[in-house]
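Pasting as-is:
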Amino acid sequence: MAKTDIKSRDKHSVDEYIASQPEAVQDVLKRVRSAIRKAVPTAEEVISYKIPTYKLPGGPVIYFAGWKQHYSLYPANARLIAAFKDELAPYEFNNKGTIRFPLSEPVPVKLIERIAKFRAKEVAAGKKAKAAAPKKARAIAQALDRRTKYSGFALPPA
């Protein structure tokens, strides 16, 4: 029997990923996908970590995956959980960044849209903060340089 190359089983598109799921799960994942695409229409749709991923220039916005009894959204950080505390109460979530929705219940399309928009704002804010960080670090270094230069205090050599 010939060995199967693991990479040949990898999914290369979200369409392939969804098609590889059991039929009952496919419809649910299509609704999740549609909600995310509606909420973040400019996001690039890719497969990352072997699951559907939506990326903006600042980084990944949201991932989803289908399982036997549920589907999940990632990442769910503390800010997101706090912002959607009441709406997420009926669902399972953990401190590892996972929100689990049971396959047996209707897809909360509006909630998923709001979560995707929230994450898109976080990614955009993170990109702005990263861009500002070098300027801020440079300003701090210059201020320290001026203070040490005129105070007669010199930092020890590194």
